[in-house]
Here is the input.
Amino acid sequence: MANITIDTPRGSFLGFIAAPFAALGRFLVLIAEANSTVRELERLNLRSDAQLAARGLTRDGEIRRIMGVSAAL
Here is the structure.
């Protein structure tokens, strides 16, 4: 999950200009977090290496499984 803090001056000209860009940024973060691949990677990130080893898995192997062909990029 991404943690982004966007502080725009309220009631000023710069705040007025920055508001649409801040909204667009928040929207793009929501889209990225809704992606199933991102959710699976977040779940993998929450597991320790010991938990993965107990299941006979490795972190690298799971990343390859989740990402598929794009893991090699």
